[in-house]
Write a structure and sequence with these properties.
5 strands; binds adenosine monophosphate; binds zinc ion; alpha+beta
Amino acid sequence: MNDCIFCKIIEKQIPSTIIYEDTVVLGILDINPANKGHVLIIVKNHYPDTITTPEDEFVSVMAATKMIAKATITALGADAYNIIINNGKASGQVIPHLHVHIVPRFPDDGLHLEWPHKKYAEGEIDEIAGKIRGELE
Ligand code: AMP
Ligand code: ZN
């Protein structure tokens, strides 16, 4: 038995405020918005995160995100927007079913989605870049 709340929303077993649907994604309004008009683009098949989502479905998710971001920003008269994917518990992901957040932004809207910056030790940036390049080979 699948306990995933987003799977239940996709199956229409749980009600949601749907703004968009196609064969690959469902677009709904977040029930606890960071700002009014906060959208979630949810991939219909259950994958926990970005890496586990097949390339073609991820591309469709991002294409829908781009299109719906434009409509949302225009509809809300927003000045800006954040597009966010949380991946894994430590990132803040609460529902482990891939989804993209579109958050409309306004000047002085009180949201603080920016993060504090860290510093690399001497040589550390090259060491880390080398490790990542190694995985890409
Ligand atoms: P995340 O932290 O990236 O997993 O985000 C999960 C999001 O789902 C949160 O912003 C919640 O407010 C939202 N959420 C949880 N339950 C529902 C629901 N039933 N309908 C709409 N949004 C929901
Ligand atoms: Zn699911």
